[in-house]
Amino acid sequence: MNPLKWVTSRLVILVPYAWLLIFFLVPFFIVFKISLSTTAIQMPPYDPVFDGTGTWEKIKQLSFDNYVWLTEDPLYYRAYISSVIIAAVSTVLTLLVAYPVAYGMARAPSSIRPTLLMLVILPFWTSFLIRVYAWIGILKPEGLLSQLLISLGLISEPLQILNTNTAIFIGIVYSYLPFMVLPIYSALEKMDYSLVEAAEDLGCTPTGAFWKVTFPLSLPGVIAGCFLVFIPAVGEFVIPDLLGGSATLMIGKTLWNEFFSNRDWPVSSAVAVVLLLILVIPIVFFQNAQAKAEEAGR
């Protein structure tokens, strides 16, 4: 084997692993180390462990009290549950909006598909924060939506949407819609639509052909899009803070308060570690199940 080709093939494999090591595993272990520390009135606001002096003594001082505290205080598991529910509902709503859009793009003439793709990613050209602030101007009681509906005679009083979960759902669906549209479009665009025609020739109705052919073939894109929306939505901070108001309980806001208001870095690090496990463990199980299903199908 050509030595240069061998080195190149190894580099192709090593680069993503090096990326994960530097930007995922190392920060994770730093946060995990802080979560095993104790709070201190100093800078940094915790007692460091593994600082190069008295290593064995430091190991004996490691404490899991912060994780125990998370199970004892209802604030944290309520925040986890609320975050997962809001993220799950937002993911379903995003899928319901994104699938028809992606389907329409995939069935559109090939000459206009690049334009449609550009329109989907066009919101990314504007700051995420500015786009969320724009929704405040739309959803507040004296905002554009209420004024439009009142002028049309559809409502008599301003809508109370801002500072509710409905506003959070709207913000998440709008903000993460491209992350759902693009993978679904990618799956649908590659599909052989002669299979749909064959199903209809064999007696399937258009609706039946969609559910028996089109939707199953688009499932990889649907699953990828759901992951791309659900994972960041669980830890979302900006949208709940600006559109949901102070009463909204989500783990992203809880993390912010622990880090910057309470300055309790060990507890907030424990919250972050548990959040990561909540997201990673189901994904690992899903990937293992998918791999076993593929092996069984061969």
From TrEMBL:
Chain segments annotated as transmembrane: 12-36, 79-103, 115-136, 167-188, 209-234, 265-286
All copies of domain ABC transmembrane type-1, residue ranges: 80-286
Keyword Cell cycle attached: no
InterPro entries: MetI-like, MetI-like_sf
A single cellular component GO annotation: plasma membrane
Bilayer disposition of the protein: Multi-pass membrane protein
Main location: membrane
Swiss-Prot/TrEMBL GO biological process terms: transmembrane transport
Subcellular location: Cell membrane
Keyword tags: Cell membrane, Membrane, Transmembrane, Transmembrane helix, Transport
Similarity remark: Belongs to the binding-protein-dependent transport system permease family. CysTW subfamily.
Official protein name in the record: Putrescine transport system permease protein
